[in-house]
Amino acid sequence: MSVFRTYYLSPFSLGLALILAYLAPADAFRQAALAGRSGVFGSGGGLHAQSAVARALPDPYYPQRPPGGLKLNYYYDRSGRWVKFSDWIPFQQKKWAPHHLEDFYELYGLPHHYKTAEVKESIYFLVQALTHRFRHPRNALCKIENEQQYHKYRLLMFMQINLLIMRMFLRLGSLYDKRHLYFHDLDVADDLEISFLVARTYYTEARKYWKQAVNYAEQANEYRFTLDLPTIESYRFNIIQGKLNFDRIIDRHLYQVEAKLETTTAFLDEEGRPRPVKEAMQKDLESMYDESFTPEPLGPPVLDPEWKDTPLFDDVNTGPMR
Q1: Among candidates 54, 52, 17, which has minimal Cα distance to 36?
Q2: Same-domain status, 154 and 217
Q3: Domain-located, residue 309
Q4: pLDDT exceeds cutoff 70 at 21
Q5: C-alpha angle 211/128/135, rounded to 5°?
Q6: Quick check: is 219 in a domain?
Q7: How far apart are CA 41 and CA 57, in angstroms?
Q8: Rounded to whole angstroms, how far apart are CA atoms 217 and 162?
């Protein structure tokens, strides 16, 4: 037996509905329709629901705005059929926490246009990886068959992570360094001196991790077999053969930054530290917070009369642009 039943409108009910639609306002017509659904129009042809599902739904089905002030997105029915998509998204989208060295190693990554915050975040994940234990051998990043392979695998991972941390510190130093120092750059010699000192600190810090990477590469080289980590194995081979030598690169960075520091230091020793211009700028900024400081009131924008243009609004007085 079909769930749905066929209903029809009698001529009297149809005519009455058309008259109400023409004469009565929308709210009155809606009340009349509801009355017809409940049987006011008669049992011989009232405006009934078309299905059992529709009869079970409250009317009106869509929740209405409550009286009072507007509360954005707070007055809809969560238990109904139409629920906001954002309510289906869990508050904690990814219920996963890193526990092993490989977990933190996989979190490492840099965007194409990175800045200081992204580099420091990568250093954090890599340093955390060095302080955590490895996964079980069956969950390693390559196939492990015996204890010797597992030992070399751990040595290669330590070497790789130290190499990445060293590269991150070099990137940090490059963000505070300048490739060329021109004479007009000395206008901000006070800031450049501090920036070069920060770069030199990062370059010096990178050397410690390079030495650790060389140490682990020498230990891993004692095993005369290779693992299924071709990129890391290539780094190990190049370090042992001397083709990959970051000592020379770090020395060049330190030599260049020391030369720039000598230039800026000599200039500041002659001009004064801080420079008179820098000191005047600092005093000007500090005076803005004095009690005697009264900022100019902000007025509406005005047009330059030389433009010979009309204002967008008639009530705006034209005058010289400030």
Answers
A1: 17
A2: yes
A3: no
A4: no
A5: 100
A6: yes
A7: 21
A8: 11
Domain end point (choices 42, 64, 86): 64
3-state secondary structure of 114: coil
d(CA 227, CA 209): 23
The residue ranking higher by pLDDT, 3 or 187, is 187
Amino acid at 83: V
pLDDT at residue 86, as a whole number: 60
Q: How far apart are CA 68 and CA 75, in angstroms?
A: 12
- Nearest-CA neighbor of 105 among 152, 148, 150, 165? 165
Residue 175 or 90, more confident: 175
In sequence order, the 6+-apart residues with CB closer than 8 A to the CB of 262 are none
Percent of the chain with pLDDT over 90: 44
Per-residue tokens: 221:
């080289």
What does DSSP assign to residue 178?
Answer: -
Q: Which of 30-34, 89-93, 240-244, 271-275 has the lowest mean pLDDT?
A: 30-34
How many angstroms separate the CA atoms of 194 and 260, rounded? 11
Total domain count, the chain: 2
Structure-token pair, residue 201: 């600190």
Q: Comparing 28-32, 109-113, 120-124, which segment has the lowest mean pLDDT?
A: 28-32
> Using 50, 70 and 90 to split pLDDT, how confident is the model at 304?
low
| Count of Cβ atoms closer than 10 Å to residue 284 Cβ | 9
- Are residues 56 and 144 located together in one domain of the fold? no
Distance CA 165, CA 213 (A): 10
313 part of a folded domain: no
